[in-house]
């Protein structure tokens, strides 16, 4: 217990006495520092693909402290700070992340933080956009549904038997014409409001009085400018005249069947065949952005041998 520089005498085991011994330094326990200890563990997180994940730790101990992060036990190159930032994460980034904190007195490994990266759910509605029924239970599917806690259609719970991979909304009555539905989900983790994949879906309840305005995208006033128009056109190459027929068709519509029918007596009508009609050109998009105009020529030419009186009309069926 003598301070450095003090003098004392010692007696060895043989009884010899020594004096004039000077103690110049006393060292105990290596360098005298403390090994690292983790005071704040990195936390597990659940996020969607594309998010940024920040894993951090706090440690005590004699400095300087060094850090090395690992994923599933494999060191991550360049990840040597107190915080690990993972940007634009993808499902392949899912795993256990740990950090080793070291100094000259030892090292310590953190608890594992599990990062779970989920794919964003994508809602699809499979119900038809047009119906002749007075009520409907909207239904559809979800791609990547594992994060969904609940789903609703216009605020009412949707049902599922397979974790929302397939879903059905409650049956609701329709009003003639346009009906709007919003399909919403609640997820874990929580999606930012700006990217929540709510889907708005329209269903048109078609009745005998409003089907044609929908099919041709007309107002209920039935503007004659948008109705099917017959005319006579002369083929420049042959000089022959043909009855032609132009009509609007909703672009990409799979819910309606536009059927051109022919008659010789206005009593019996038959669906036109490929021999009966020649489409004169590709469909021409209209300014409304909803419909395109199709023009067809009725065969044979007017006045040709075998030609009879021909009447043409368009019938719309809801599929």
Q: How does this model look, in words?
A:
The protein is mainly beta. The protein is built from 1 helix and 28 strands. It has one helix spanning 211-216; strands spanning 7-11, 17-22, 37-40, 45-48, 53-56, 58-60, 66-71, 74-75, 83-86, 95-103, 106-109, 113-118, 122-125, 130-131, 135-143, 148-153, 156-157, 166-173, 177-187, 199-205, 229-234, 241-250, 256-263, 270-271, 277-279, 284-285, 291-298, 311-318. The strands form 8 sheets. Strands 4, 7, 8, 10, 11 and 12 form a 6-stranded mixed sheet that branches. Strands 14-20-19-16-17 form a 5-stranded mixed sheet, with no helix packed on it. Strands 21, 22, 25, 26 and 27 form a 5-stranded antiparallel sheet that branches. A hairpin with a 5-residue loop joins strand 1 (7-11) and strand 2. It is elongated, with a radius of gyration of 40 Å. 17% of the residues are buried.
